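A student in our group prepared the protein record below, which I am reviewing. Thanks in advance; the entry in question is below.
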Amino acid sequence: MSINPQASTPDGADARVRVAGNAAALRDYFLRLGADAVIAADGTLEIALAVNDDATVERYLSTWASTNQIPARIEGPLGQATVSQLFGRRPRLGDLLLDKGLIAESELRTALVESAQTGDRLGRVLVRRELIFEDELARMLAEQLALPYVSLRAVGVDSTVAELLPIETGLHFAAIPIARLNGKVRVAFADPFDSGALAAVAEHIPAYAPVVAELSEIELAWRTVAPEAAA
């Protein structure tokens, strides 16, 4: 990894990054960490970490670049307007959980470190550590993105609508079409931050409305809709 010391921010908290190759992969990595990250028109990645994140963009970038053997460098700090735009887009998952008293700050810090090391999204780490329940994660993701939360056990799945998506795709990306509403197909996602899942669904259902559901309920719904294929 290459770092331009003249361009780096004083604390490495918020930065504009240039990466060789697919910037989307690096963006998704920072999103999994709970950061805000968008690809700018010039191909650089604009990154703003959570205010309670003790790490730096430089530290996370070094880990990712070394692991994937992909050159990347910090080109400069973000302007204040850009930082405000990024942070104004949505509340942090970690902040939501802290505000609701579902986790402690020490637990969040430990989970963030594990997320950085494993590449797993913060929510998955918290569930694996049994710090939050799966339905709490789904509700927080929904609140974070201002999307509806749906309990598939309560609302069920329209099997004719589910057939719009190949079951192999649905199981791989943890997504399932569940109903038609206002001319659009409602698709339940376990991880609405997974750009690969969103793109895969769009290949089969160009116009859909995303909602958030629990992973286990999505898998159960597929087994109910197509028991032989899901076995």
Remarks:
- The mean pLDDT is 81.
- The radius of gyration is 19 Å.
- The beta strands are 2-3, 14-19, 36-39, 45-48, 72-77, 175-181, 184-189, 208-212.
